Sequence to fold (136 residues):
Amino acid sequence: MSGPIKNDKLIKQYDLEMGKIFFYENYLVIEVAEGICFDYEKAKTLSLLTNLHFGDQPFGYVSHRINSYSLEATDYMKIKDVFPNMKAFAAVTYNESQKTSIRIENMFYQEGIVSFENIEEAIKWVREKIKNDSSV
Fold:
């Protein structure tokens, strides 16, 4: 991605060891760095930023998987503890290996991760989910 999404105002960008995080009004895009193991501890660090930016407002999470990295699928069982206000989880995948990974991750994350093949479609879906969730 490396830069803001058209029509959405980038509020803040963080370049951390774990990767780049882009915050928008009601969603974030994360590009985990090459070779990182994204685990519960890194999710807790990220939750400090989501709390800072979103407070108790509902938000969407877009995992833009442009790099190769590993994650602890079993940590998804604790995701609601880390991100209680997350209402939409999208992942942008670019190969079969990543799509297989999403299927495995979905075994551990009850709410479901929706996979997309491009960032624009993922963000469009997340915005719709947040909008619909907010109007309930």
